[in-house]
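Assess this one:

_____
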Amino acid sequence: MVYSAFYLPHGLHHSLLARDYSFNDSKVLTPGVRTNLMRLLCTPGTPLFESCGWATKLLSARDISSGMMRPGAGVYNLNAQAMDATVELIREIVEGRKVDIREVYIDTIGNPATYQQKLERIFPSLKITVAKKADSLYPCVSAASVAAKVTRDVALELCHEDIVKAQQSNDPSQATSTESWGSGYPSDSKCVSWLRRNMDPIFGWGNECRFSWGTSKEMLEMKGGVKVDWPLDEENTQFQDFLLTSSEAPKGTNQELRDWFGQKTTEVL
């Protein structure tokens, strides 16, 4: 997941982004248009480069899964992770980069009112607006969505290249493979097909896959994955419980494990 923030002078919000460069929700822009807009953002001398700034926060599939799959009540769900990423981005721009931010527009996660109230408590000096489909309503959010989308696409391309190289090193016959893994959405047949073809029945996939994702969980648990039973650890289990005491040790046993760790002594040398 990639989260992004975009900032520019208030007076240029609509004229520069909407009128001059036609920023819109990244989902309705073609990959070529998104890439070109991002290139202009990164090219010195262009109006976008001179007047705007942006920041991104990347959460890897492993990071998300480790939070969502915590045992018990410690689950760190995707909405909470997104909220923290948003707060981190705002702090980076306001406190880290010392940008004089007055207004903030955010695409909602869940209930807009609840989300907005949380952010207002954290940033009381900012005028915050949280709305559904904000990336279609506010040009700055549209620009942020473009930055996030292009960053995500590039990150996935690099990750895919690393995976292909690893596969080729293990199997040279795959040297000419151009297999795509699609967009990462469950509705994408390329994505689902890639998951099926590359699933290890025991370990699933590598760090590129989010194991808390319903699609991957279903494949592992229902469609070809090996079922594994994990014994529950008893509470208060200590390492010493697995060692024999001197009275419990069979006669003649050299207690290799205990000798390896050494024994406590009160003698001072």
